[in-house]
Design a protein that fits this description.
With 405 residues, the chain is an alpha/beta fold. It folds into two domains: 5-81, no CATH class; 93-383, Beta-clip-like. Helix content is 16%, strand content 18%. It has helices at 5-8, 32-40, 42-47, 151-162, 176-179, 258-267, 380-399, and strands at 53-54, 60-61, 63-65, 78-81, 91-92, 97-98, 169-170, 192-193, 198-199, 224-229, 233-238, 247-250, 253-257, 277-279, 296-304, 311-312, 319-325, 335-340, 349-352. The strands form five sheets. It has a six-stranded mixed β-sheet. A hairpin with a 5-residue loop joins strand 1 (53-54) and strand 2 (60-61). Bound molecules: S-adenosylmethionine (SAM). Residues 1, 3-4, 88, 232-235, 275-276, 308-309, 311-312, 368, 370-372 line the site of S-adenosylmethionine (SAM).
Length: 405
Amino acid sequence: MESNSDSNRKTHNSNAEGSVECKRATGGTNSTAIQRKRHQDDDLDEDIQPLDHHNATDKKLFHKINDITKGTEKMKISLIDEIGIDLPKFGYIPQNTTYQDAYVPFTLARIADENCCFRCNGDCLSSRVPCACSRETGGEFAYTSQGLLKDEFLEACISMSHQPKDHHFFYCQYCPLERGKNVHNHEPCKGHLVRKFIKECWRKCGCNIKCGNRVVQRGITCKLQVFAMEGKGWGLRTLENLPKGYFVCEYVGEILTNSELYERNKKIRINERHTYPVLLDSDWGSEQVLKDEEALCLDATNYGNVARFINHRCFDSNLIEIPVEVETPDHHYYHIAFFTKRNVNAYEELTWDYQIDFEDDGHPIKAFKCQCGSSYCRDVRRKVSETKQKEVGVKRHKSGTSRVS
Ligand SMILES: C[S@@+](CC[C@H](N)C(=O)[O-])C[C@H]1O[C@@H](n2cnc3c(N)ncnc32)[C@H](O)[C@@H]1O
Protein backbone atom coordinates (compact mmCIF):
# COMPACT_ATOMS: atom_id res chain seq x y z
CA MET A 1 0.00 0.00 0.00
CA GLU A 2 1.48 3.30 -0.98
CA SER A 3 0.80 5.42 1.96
CA ASN A 4 3.94 6.11 3.91
CA SER A 5 5.73 9.11 2.56
CA ASP A 6 9.16 7.60 3.20
CA SER A 7 8.42 4.80 0.79
CA ASN A 8 6.68 6.89 -1.83
CA ARG A 9 8.91 9.94 -1.90
CA LYS A 10 10.18 10.63 -5.36
CA THR A 11 11.31 13.45 -7.56
CA HIS A 12 8.78 15.81 -9.06
CA ASN A 13 9.78 14.75 -12.58
CA SER A 14 8.36 11.25 -12.26
CA ASN A 15 5.25 10.65 -14.27
CA ALA A 16 2.37 9.43 -12.14
CA GLU A 17 -0.50 7.35 -13.51
CA GLY A 18 -4.08 6.80 -12.42
CA SER A 19 -7.32 8.56 -11.97
CA VAL A 20 -6.53 11.65 -9.93
CA GLU A 21 -3.06 12.24 -11.13
CA CYS A 22 -1.19 15.35 -11.95
CA LYS A 23 0.05 15.92 -15.49
CA ARG A 24 2.15 18.52 -17.24
CA ALA A 25 0.50 21.27 -19.30
CA THR A 26 0.58 20.25 -22.96
CA GLY A 27 1.22 23.62 -24.62
CA GLY A 28 3.35 24.30 -27.70
CA THR A 29 1.68 22.24 -30.45
CA ASN A 30 -0.93 22.89 -33.15
CA SER A 31 -1.79 19.27 -33.79
CA THR A 32 -5.56 18.90 -34.34
CA ALA A 33 -5.57 15.58 -32.52
CA ILE A 34 -4.01 17.13 -29.45
CA GLN A 35 -6.34 20.12 -29.67
CA ARG A 36 -9.31 17.77 -29.80
CA LYS A 37 -7.92 15.81 -26.86
CA ARG A 38 -7.37 19.07 -24.97
CA HIS A 39 -10.96 20.01 -25.56
CA GLN A 40 -12.11 16.68 -24.11
CA ASP A 41 -9.81 17.23 -21.15
CA ASP A 42 -10.95 20.79 -20.51
CA ASP A 43 -12.21 19.90 -17.05
CA LEU A 44 -8.92 18.36 -16.10
CA ASP A 45 -6.75 21.09 -17.58
CA GLU A 46 -8.65 23.65 -15.59
CA ASP A 47 -8.13 21.64 -12.41
CA ILE A 48 -4.53 20.52 -12.68
CA GLN A 49 -1.68 23.02 -12.39
CA PRO A 50 1.75 22.48 -13.96
CA LEU A 51 4.46 21.08 -11.72
CA ASP A 52 7.03 23.33 -10.06
CA HIS A 53 4.37 25.95 -9.48
CA HIS A 54 5.22 28.44 -6.73
CA ASN A 55 2.64 29.60 -4.22
CA ALA A 56 2.41 32.91 -2.42
CA THR A 57 4.89 31.87 0.27
CA ASP A 58 7.35 30.86 -2.45
CA LYS A 59 7.36 27.25 -1.30
CA LYS A 60 8.00 24.79 -4.08
CA LEU A 61 4.84 22.95 -5.12
CA PHE A 62 5.47 19.53 -6.62
CA HIS A 63 1.82 18.81 -7.35
CA LYS A 64 -1.39 20.78 -7.27
CA ILE A 65 -4.86 19.61 -8.27
CA ASN A 66 -7.73 22.04 -7.91
CA ASP A 67 -10.43 19.44 -7.52
CA ILE A 68 -9.68 15.77 -6.87
CA THR A 69 -13.43 15.03 -6.91
CA LYS A 70 -13.65 15.92 -10.62
CA GLY A 71 -16.82 17.86 -9.93
CA THR A 72 -18.62 15.00 -8.20
CA GLU A 73 -18.92 16.80 -4.85
CA LYS A 74 -20.64 20.13 -4.16
CA MET A 75 -17.31 21.52 -2.91
CA LYS A 76 -14.05 21.44 -4.82
CA ILE A 77 -11.32 19.60 -2.88
CA SER A 78 -7.77 20.61 -3.73
CA LEU A 79 -4.57 18.60 -3.35
CA ILE A 80 -1.14 20.13 -2.77
CA ASP A 81 2.26 18.59 -2.38
CA GLU A 82 5.16 20.64 -1.06
CA ILE A 83 7.49 17.71 -0.35
CA GLY A 84 7.41 15.58 -3.51
CA ILE A 85 5.61 12.26 -3.05
CA ASP A 86 3.75 9.97 -5.46
CA LEU A 87 0.27 11.07 -6.39
CA PRO A 88 -2.44 8.79 -5.04
CA LYS A 89 -3.83 6.24 -7.50
CA PHE A 90 -7.55 5.71 -7.06
CA GLY A 91 -10.86 6.60 -8.64
CA TYR A 92 -12.85 9.29 -6.86
CA ILE A 93 -16.42 8.17 -6.04
CA PRO A 94 -18.72 10.36 -3.95
CA GLN A 95 -20.95 7.46 -2.86
CA ASN A 96 -20.41 3.87 -1.77
CA THR A 97 -20.59 1.44 -4.69
CA THR A 98 -21.00 -2.34 -4.53
CA TYR A 99 -18.00 -4.24 -5.86
CA GLN A 100 -19.68 -7.59 -6.61
CA ASP A 101 -21.22 -9.94 -4.05
CA ALA A 102 -22.36 -7.59 -1.28
CA TYR A 103 -26.12 -7.75 -0.66
CA VAL A 104 -27.23 -4.14 -0.27
CA PRO A 105 -30.88 -3.85 -1.23
CA PHE A 106 -32.44 -0.38 -1.09
CA THR A 107 -36.11 -1.08 -1.50
CA LEU A 108 -39.00 0.98 -0.20
CA ALA A 109 -40.78 -2.25 0.71
CA ARG A 110 -38.12 -2.99 3.33
CA ILE A 111 -38.86 0.28 5.12
CA ALA A 112 -41.81 -0.40 7.42
CA ASP A 113 -44.19 2.47 8.26
CA GLU A 114 -42.73 2.63 11.77
CA ASN A 115 -39.24 3.12 10.27
CA CYS A 116 -40.06 6.35 8.45
CA CYS A 117 -42.14 9.49 8.92
CA PHE A 118 -44.46 9.45 5.91
CA ARG A 119 -46.95 11.76 7.70
CA CYS A 120 -44.38 14.53 8.31
CA ASN A 121 -44.16 17.79 6.37
CA GLY A 122 -41.36 20.33 5.98
CA ASP A 123 -38.68 20.09 8.68
CA CYS A 124 -38.97 17.24 11.20
CA LEU A 125 -36.76 19.10 13.71
CA SER A 126 -39.35 21.83 14.08
CA SER A 127 -42.27 19.50 14.74
CA ARG A 128 -43.67 19.57 18.28
CA VAL A 129 -43.31 15.84 18.80
CA PRO A 130 -40.18 14.13 17.36
CA CYS A 131 -41.22 11.78 14.58
CA ALA A 132 -40.52 8.04 14.14
CA CYS A 133 -37.09 8.75 12.64
CA SER A 134 -35.87 9.92 16.07
CA ARG A 135 -36.56 6.53 17.65
CA GLU A 136 -33.07 5.19 16.89
CA THR A 137 -31.64 8.07 18.97
CA GLY A 138 -34.00 7.57 21.89
CA GLY A 139 -36.86 9.82 20.78
CA GLU A 140 -34.68 12.87 20.22
CA PHE A 141 -32.97 13.88 17.00
CA ALA A 142 -29.19 13.68 16.96
CA TYR A 143 -28.91 17.07 15.19
CA THR A 144 -29.49 20.65 16.32
CA SER A 145 -31.33 23.10 14.07
CA GLN A 146 -27.87 24.47 13.11
CA GLY A 147 -27.03 21.08 11.62
CA LEU A 148 -24.54 20.14 14.36
CA LEU A 149 -24.56 17.01 16.48
CA LYS A 150 -26.17 17.53 19.86
CA ASP A 151 -23.55 17.68 22.57
CA GLU A 152 -25.01 14.91 24.68
CA PHE A 153 -25.15 12.49 21.76
CA LEU A 154 -21.65 13.41 20.60
CA GLU A 155 -20.17 13.04 24.10
CA ALA A 156 -21.80 9.61 24.47
CA CYS A 157 -20.23 8.50 21.16
CA ILE A 158 -16.84 9.90 22.18
CA SER A 159 -17.02 8.10 25.51
CA MET A 160 -17.77 4.80 23.71
CA SER A 161 -14.75 5.22 21.46
CA HIS A 162 -12.47 6.35 24.31
CA GLN A 163 -13.45 3.56 26.69
CA PRO A 164 -14.69 0.74 24.45
CA LYS A 165 -14.19 -1.82 27.23
CA ASP A 166 -16.79 -0.03 29.38
CA HIS A 167 -19.38 -0.47 26.68
CA HIS A 168 -21.20 -3.39 25.27
CA PHE A 169 -19.61 -5.82 22.82
CA PHE A 170 -21.39 -8.32 20.59
CA TYR A 171 -19.67 -11.67 20.14
CA CYS A 172 -20.48 -13.64 16.97
CA GLN A 173 -21.08 -17.36 17.12
CA TYR A 174 -19.11 -17.72 13.86
CA CYS A 175 -17.30 -14.47 13.34
CA PRO A 176 -17.06 -13.47 9.64
CA LEU A 177 -13.51 -12.26 10.32
CA GLU A 178 -12.48 -15.73 11.44
CA ARG A 179 -14.55 -17.50 8.76
CA GLY A 180 -12.87 -15.41 6.09
CA LYS A 181 -9.48 -16.79 7.08
CA ASN A 182 -10.63 -20.13 5.63
CA VAL A 183 -8.99 -22.27 8.29
CA HIS A 184 -10.50 -25.34 9.99
CA ASN A 185 -10.24 -24.14 13.55
CA HIS A 186 -11.72 -20.71 13.88
CA GLU A 187 -10.62 -18.62 16.76
CA PRO A 188 -13.45 -17.24 18.88
CA CYS A 189 -14.87 -13.85 17.95
CA LYS A 190 -12.88 -11.00 19.50
CA GLY A 191 -16.05 -8.91 19.83
CA HIS A 192 -17.66 -6.01 17.99
CA LEU A 193 -18.46 -2.78 19.75
CA VAL A 194 -22.13 -1.91 19.88
CA ARG A 195 -22.38 1.58 18.40
CA LYS A 196 -24.82 4.43 18.61
CA PHE A 197 -26.54 5.03 15.26
CA ILE A 198 -27.99 8.17 13.75
CA LYS A 199 -31.04 7.59 11.59
CA GLU A 200 -31.74 10.17 8.90
CA CYS A 201 -35.06 10.77 7.13
CA TRP A 202 -35.16 9.44 3.59
CA ARG A 203 -37.31 8.89 0.52
CA LYS A 204 -40.34 7.31 2.20
CA CYS A 205 -40.45 10.17 4.74
CA GLY A 206 -42.89 13.04 4.15
CA CYS A 207 -40.46 15.85 5.09
CA ASN A 208 -38.60 17.91 2.51
CA ILE A 209 -34.96 17.68 1.43
CA LYS A 210 -34.03 20.61 3.71
CA CYS A 211 -35.31 18.76 6.80
CA GLY A 212 -32.78 19.13 9.63
CA ASN A 213 -32.66 15.36 10.02
CA ARG A 214 -30.87 15.04 6.66
CA VAL A 215 -27.25 16.06 7.11
CA VAL A 216 -24.94 13.28 5.97
CA GLN A 217 -26.95 12.57 2.81
CA ARG A 218 -26.45 16.19 1.67
CA GLY A 219 -22.69 15.62 1.41
CA ILE A 220 -19.60 17.73 2.07
CA THR A 221 -20.17 21.42 2.81
CA CYS A 222 -16.79 22.58 4.16
CA LYS A 223 -13.53 23.49 2.44
CA LEU A 224 -11.09 20.60 2.62
CA GLN A 225 -7.61 20.04 1.24
CA VAL A 226 -5.45 16.95 0.73
CA PHE A 227 -1.80 17.64 1.52
CA ALA A 228 1.46 15.74 1.69
CA MET A 229 3.43 15.35 4.88
CA GLU A 230 6.56 13.69 6.11
CA GLY A 231 6.05 10.27 7.69
CA LYS A 232 2.35 9.73 7.05
CA GLY A 233 2.02 10.29 3.30
CA TRP A 234 -1.11 12.19 2.30
CA GLY A 235 -3.41 13.69 4.89
CA LEU A 236 -6.56 15.81 5.00
CA ARG A 237 -7.02 19.24 6.53
CA THR A 238 -9.78 21.78 6.80
CA LEU A 239 -9.28 25.20 5.22
CA GLU A 240 -11.81 26.82 7.53
CA ASN A 241 -12.67 26.79 11.24
CA LEU A 242 -15.16 24.05 12.06
CA PRO A 243 -17.38 24.00 15.14
CA LYS A 244 -17.75 20.97 17.42
CA GLY A 245 -20.25 18.41 16.12
CA TYR A 246 -19.85 19.43 12.45
CA PHE A 247 -20.31 16.81 9.72
CA VAL A 248 -17.12 16.75 7.63
CA CYS A 249 -17.48 13.85 5.20
CA GLU A 250 -18.39 10.20 5.09
CA TYR A 251 -16.07 7.28 4.50
CA VAL A 252 -16.79 6.15 0.95
CA GLY A 253 -15.43 3.08 -0.79
CA GLU A 254 -16.31 -0.12 -2.58
CA ILE A 255 -18.73 -2.28 -0.60
CA LEU A 256 -17.01 -5.64 -0.25
CA THR A 257 -17.98 -8.85 1.48
CA ASN A 258 -15.54 -10.08 4.04
CA SER A 259 -14.45 -12.93 1.72
CA GLU A 260 -13.78 -10.46 -1.07
CA LEU A 261 -11.62 -8.46 1.31
CA TYR A 262 -9.61 -11.58 2.21
CA GLU A 263 -9.19 -12.44 -1.46
CA ARG A 264 -7.82 -8.94 -2.09
CA ASN A 265 -5.50 -9.22 0.87
CA LYS A 266 -4.16 -12.56 -0.39
CA LYS A 267 -3.20 -11.04 -3.74
CA ILE A 268 -0.96 -8.40 -2.30
CA ARG A 269 2.33 -8.84 -0.53
CA ILE A 270 2.19 -9.70 3.16
CA ASN A 271 3.59 -6.41 4.39
CA GLU A 272 1.29 -4.46 2.09
CA ARG A 273 -2.06 -5.57 3.45
CA HIS A 274 -4.91 -3.18 2.78
CA THR A 275 -4.98 -0.14 4.96
CA TYR A 276 -8.10 1.41 3.53
CA PRO A 277 -10.94 -0.97 4.52
CA VAL A 278 -13.39 -0.17 7.30
CA LEU A 279 -15.60 -2.94 8.65
CA LEU A 280 -19.36 -2.38 8.82
CA ASP A 281 -19.53 -4.62 11.88
CA SER A 282 -21.77 -2.66 14.24
CA ASP A 283 -24.48 -5.26 13.96
CA TRP A 284 -22.33 -8.39 13.81
CA GLY A 285 -23.08 -10.87 16.53
CA SER A 286 -26.62 -9.67 17.08
CA GLU A 287 -27.85 -12.43 14.77
CA GLN A 288 -27.09 -16.14 14.84
CA VAL A 289 -24.97 -16.55 11.71
CA LEU A 290 -24.33 -13.74 9.28
CA LYS A 291 -24.33 -14.73 5.61
CA ASP A 292 -21.14 -13.87 3.75
CA GLU A 293 -22.93 -11.35 1.51
CA GLU A 294 -24.12 -9.52 4.63
CA ALA A 295 -20.74 -9.24 6.39
CA LEU A 296 -19.50 -6.10 4.70
CA CYS A 297 -16.75 -3.53 4.69
CA LEU A 298 -15.93 -0.36 2.78
CA ASP A 299 -12.63 -0.49 0.90
CA ALA A 300 -11.33 2.83 -0.38
CA THR A 301 -8.10 1.40 -1.83
CA ASN A 302 -9.12 1.54 -5.49
CA TYR A 303 -12.22 3.71 -5.33
CA GLY A 304 -13.09 6.10 -2.57
CA ASN A 305 -13.70 9.66 -1.56
CA VAL A 306 -11.64 12.24 0.32
CA ALA A 307 -11.96 10.33 3.61
CA ARG A 308 -9.37 7.83 2.38
CA PHE A 309 -6.78 10.49 3.19
CA ILE A 310 -7.70 10.89 6.85
CA ASN A 311 -4.82 9.66 8.98
CA HIS A 312 -5.02 7.90 12.31
CA ARG A 313 -4.42 9.51 15.70
CA CYS A 314 -4.58 7.51 18.91
CA PHE A 315 -7.28 8.66 21.32
CA ASP A 316 -7.24 12.48 20.92
CA SER A 317 -8.14 12.68 17.21
CA ASN A 318 -10.37 15.60 16.19
CA LEU A 319 -12.89 13.48 14.26
CA ILE A 320 -15.16 10.65 15.32
CA GLU A 321 -16.87 8.17 13.02
CA ILE A 322 -20.55 7.52 13.66
CA PRO A 323 -22.75 4.94 11.89
CA VAL A 324 -25.64 6.50 10.00
CA GLU A 325 -28.74 4.72 8.73
CA VAL A 326 -30.13 6.32 5.59
CA GLU A 327 -31.57 4.04 2.90
CA THR A 328 -32.18 0.83 4.81
CA PRO A 329 -33.12 -0.04 8.39
CA ASP A 330 -31.02 -3.18 7.97
CA HIS A 331 -27.76 -2.47 9.80
CA HIS A 332 -25.62 -4.85 7.75
CA TYR A 333 -25.09 -1.81 5.58
CA TYR A 334 -24.85 1.76 6.81
CA HIS A 335 -22.86 4.94 6.25
CA ILE A 336 -19.82 5.96 8.28
CA ALA A 337 -19.88 9.69 8.89
CA PHE A 338 -17.10 11.83 10.38
CA PHE A 339 -17.99 14.60 12.82
CA THR A 340 -15.69 16.99 14.66
CA LYS A 341 -15.13 16.08 18.34
CA ARG A 342 -14.23 19.69 19.22
CA ASN A 343 -13.78 23.05 17.51
CA VAL A 344 -11.16 22.60 14.79
CA ASN A 345 -9.08 25.48 13.45
CA ALA A 346 -8.44 26.19 9.79
CA TYR A 347 -5.36 24.30 8.51
CA GLU A 348 -5.46 21.68 11.30
CA GLU A 349 -4.99 18.14 10.05
CA LEU A 350 -8.16 16.07 10.38
CA THR A 351 -7.60 12.72 12.11
CA TRP A 352 -9.63 9.83 13.47
CA ASP A 353 -8.81 6.96 15.77
CA TYR A 354 -8.84 3.82 13.60
CA GLN A 355 -9.23 1.84 16.87
CA ILE A 356 -6.32 -0.28 15.67
CA ASP A 357 -4.93 -3.01 17.87
CA PHE A 358 -1.26 -2.53 17.00
CA GLU A 359 -0.43 -6.01 18.25
CA ASP A 360 -3.07 -7.97 16.31
CA ASP A 361 -1.13 -9.29 13.30
CA GLY A 362 -4.06 -11.45 12.16
CA HIS A 363 -6.39 -8.52 11.52
CA PRO A 364 -7.21 -7.81 7.84
CA ILE A 365 -6.38 -4.17 8.38
CA LYS A 366 -2.64 -3.87 8.62
CA ALA A 367 -1.26 -2.00 11.58
CA PHE A 368 1.45 0.48 10.61
CA LYS A 369 4.17 2.08 12.68
CA CYS A 370 2.16 4.85 14.26
CA GLN A 371 3.48 8.39 13.97
CA CYS A 372 0.40 10.16 15.28
CA GLY A 373 2.40 12.18 17.77
CA SER A 374 -0.28 11.87 20.44
CA SER A 375 0.86 11.49 24.03
CA TYR A 376 -1.76 8.71 24.24
CA CYS A 377 -0.20 6.76 21.34
CA ARG A 378 -0.99 3.03 21.73
CA ASP A 379 1.71 1.72 19.40
CA VAL A 380 3.86 0.06 22.00
CA ARG A 381 6.17 -1.49 19.37
CA ARG A 382 7.02 1.97 18.08
CA LYS A 383 7.62 3.23 21.61
CA VAL A 384 9.78 0.21 22.44
CA SER A 385 11.87 0.61 19.27
CA GLU A 386 12.25 4.35 19.90
CA THR A 387 13.35 3.73 23.49
CA LYS A 388 15.85 1.13 22.27
CA GLN A 389 17.19 3.54 19.66
CA LYS A 390 17.59 6.21 22.32
CA GLU A 391 19.39 3.75 24.62
CA VAL A 392 21.72 2.70 21.82
CA GLY A 393 22.34 6.39 21.07
CA VAL A 394 23.18 7.10 24.71
CA LYS A 395 25.54 4.07 24.93
CA ARG A 396 27.30 5.07 21.71
CA HIS A 397 27.53 8.63 22.94
CA LYS A 398 29.04 7.46 26.25
CA SER A 399 31.57 5.21 24.48
CA GLY A 400 32.36 7.98 22.02
CA THR A 401 31.26 5.93 18.96
CA SER A 402 28.28 8.01 17.92
CA ARG A 403 28.42 10.09 14.76
CA VAL A 404 26.46 13.21 14.11
CA SER A 405 25.17 13.10 10.60
C1 LIG B 1 -6.47 5.51 5.11
S1 LIG B 1 -4.81 5.76 4.73
C2 LIG B 1 -4.58 7.45 5.14
C3 LIG B 1 -3.97 8.22 4.00
C4 LIG B 1 -2.53 7.87 3.71
N1 LIG B 1 -1.64 8.63 4.57
C5 LIG B 1 -2.16 8.08 2.26
O1 LIG B 1 -1.07 8.61 1.98
O2 LIG B 1 -2.93 7.68 1.38
C6 LIG B 1 -4.02 4.85 5.99
C7 LIG B 1 -2.54 4.74 5.87
O3 LIG B 1 -1.94 6.00 6.14
C8 LIG B 1 -0.77 5.84 6.95
N2 LIG B 1 -1.04 6.40 8.26
C9 LIG B 1 -2.21 6.83 8.75
N3 LIG B 1 -2.08 7.28 10.00
C10 LIG B 1 -0.80 7.13 10.34
C11 LIG B 1 -0.07 7.37 11.52
N4 LIG B 1 -0.62 7.87 12.60
N5 LIG B 1 1.25 7.07 11.51
C12 LIG B 1 1.84 6.56 10.41
N6 LIG B 1 1.19 6.29 9.25
C13 LIG B 1 -0.12 6.57 9.22
C14 LIG B 1 -0.56 4.34 7.08
O4 LIG B 1 0.31 3.92 6.06
C15 LIG B 1 -1.94 3.79 6.87
O5 LIG B 1 -1.88 2.48 6.39
